[in-house]
């Protein structure tokens, strides 16, 4: 029988046939990543996958490999919607590989503090306009291929500390003019099919129960017609979340909903039509993805394809996000003639010979391959400069936890790097093995990889076994953190015991902040000898969910497992050796920064300082060799106490699988850097807008900075940042001239175009990101930031060439939110200046215009 293609008739037809119980079940996932199918009616399931910069697929740790793009903060630093659109197509292709339908991305919450653990993952930086526009490009490009996107986390998920409970207190203007803006722009420009609610409370109400956010603003004001899903385990009620417009509880199987919801209807706590509204939106989503055409659809195996064209694109995208912060002393670029004149380059720093490719948490994935800056530079430079010596010294350690150790450990079953993991259907590791698997990483997660019979709450045990061969003899270190009770054995002898763990036991930041504090032990070991390592654990005890139909409920989650680490004794003088190498080299490239353990979902950072002895190392290296290039890998601003002495500083973010090639291209000048900061780099944490209000106390955080976030704050408070928002140098120079507007009178019916001529005045071709900031020059009805970003354009220029950069300012560029009227307004007869700028503090010219007489309207 031919299927009806019309969405409404398909959706309404299915809705009419579904029983109340089936409808209730459809409002939760069926498992960790999939929606609930109803095969009886030919309603297929949809599969979700995390992003935002790669498609991880249906396994959180050790999944099938995937292309890994640069972190979102780096993509934001490109200021290039074309790159974001190309990335969208790549992601859509990889979504097909992973047999997934709903991409859980993009992330757009603002970088409120440099300490925000998830800053690296967000496209917004400290400006909502930039994030909103980039997110719109992303969403359009992915959805064009019939793949749903999920803009997240609605709203203001800008801190990880206490994320499941924290109450974020903010003014209406702060909410409307900053934190909702990226979502509002993306919904206006791109219409994402899904949105994910955040975990926390906004002004006292959990986002997942928040009718004002999910229905009044999102659907009624903005006209959003897609589906709202919870963040994972983020539904905090039975009836109120459905009432608020929260369509889908994720993950499944249902914890709060399911039978509770059908019972709630039967007992009169909720009308069936309220539930129907949510089911309807889930059915509409199934239709939009085209999945409705496959009533008997059976999910296929995930695939991994490392495509050459993706490699090439990711290399370019990564290089384009790298920001040249400072370039004095003619060190960069390392042109062929400069390299011909030198003998030795040293790569120094804890990240130099590591693949620091991404931040941690749900945005992390298993990349198709990994590159290391030192190795890649050495490999790439070998053929053009065969006589150049490239050496490496680590300098210091910068790990937060004892590192995972698959490199020196193999499974006894198959000899492959990693461990062999077995699951038992009891708490005693007894009897038949219910399920076994090879685990590549020693992050032994028990989450989306459990046998089906292990339903949430069922207690089970697991054992992972590996054969570990240390490279050296010495006092080596083992570590463990575990969610439930756990212990570690070496050659059958217990070396770590965390067996007394209960529900109430202390948690640390380890394992997405679900695990115990890390326990460490030192053991004398012989290099080259093989030892048997066993890790035993028991699943956590879960609390039953109380059935209070109309109350707020606590959060629960079923994430479980252990993380074990191993590190050989460091006998060398890391610091001294590195300084000596720096002294004997012609040029030093220091690759410093943070990594996946310091910057991650689930916790915030404690400091802007580089971890370990990196600052001291940089200082000492600069003393012995001023020809030093500092390359920093981090997703957030760091403090730079050595900046005055450092001639050259490069911000390299986390660049995904092509990090080595991208950095190489920028260092040697194959790519002229054009990245610009999407976030202000402050001099010190004390200067930041929320210094006194981050991360709050007693589970409450006050957004005391109001509408003055990022450059809005630094400009108003006259605080000079270390590097301003929008800053980024090039190997060439650009002149800005002739800033103009298409009309001196703004009317909403004929949007106004601002233009500026950009000339490449240097000797290399390059790209320039031009920023347009709008200021109200007549007194506004309410205080406003001095200027706000309302447009940007990237131009590519040959030496001597001039091009015009322009942007169309629409009515949304002018208004502010009047919280007495609860409306967006533009002041009557207001006058504005639009500035063409190379950064938020480097304004190169402006043009003025005013709004038509008597104009004051809702935008
Ligand atoms: C994160 C989301 C993510 C989800 C699924 C949550 O912990 O906050 O961003 O999409 O997990 O992995």
In the CATH scheme, the class of the largest domain would be Alpha Beta
**Mean pLDDT, all residues:** 96
Using the CA coordinates, give the radius of gyration: 27 Å
| CATH evolutionary superfamily of the largest domain | Glycoside hydrolase, family 3, N-terminal domain
Tell me the CATH topology of the largest domain.
TIM Barrel
The assembly state of the depicted protein chains is single chain
Distinct bound molecules: beta-D-glucopyranose
Q: What sort of overall outline do the alpha carbons produce when their principal axes are compared?
A: globular
How are the elements arranged and paired?
Layout (H helix, E strand, L loop, with lengths): L6 H11 L2 H7 L21 E3 L21 H5 L4 H17 L4 E3 L23 H16 L4 E7 L12 E3 L2 H8 L1 H10 L3 E4 L3 E2 L2 E2 L4 H11 L5 E3 L9 H6 L14 H8 L5 H17 L19 H14 L1 E5 L8 H5 L3 E5 L24 H9 L7 E5 L15 E2 L8 E6 L8 E7 L3 E4 L14 E8 L5 E9 L3 E5 L2 E6 L11 H4 L5 E7 L5 E8 L21 E8 L6 H11 L2 E7 L20 H11 L3 E6 L14 E4 L7 H10 L31 E3 L8 H6 L17 E8 L3 E2 L5 E9 L5 E11 L11 E10 L4 E8 L6 E3 L4 E3 L5 E9 L2 E10 L8
Parallel strand pairs: 1-2, 2-3, 3-5, 4-6, 4-26, 5-8, 10-11, 10-23, 23-24, 24-25, 28-36
Antiparallel strand pairs: 6-7, 9-25, 12-16, 13-14, 13-16, 15-22, 16-21, 17-20, 17-22, 18-19, 18-21, 27-29, 29-32, 30-31, 30-35, 33-34, 35-36
Helix pairs in contact: 1-11, 2-10, 2-11, 4-5, 4-12, 5-7, 12-18, 14-18, 16-17
The structure holds beta-D-glucopyranose.
Beta-D-glucopyranose (BGC) binds next to loops.
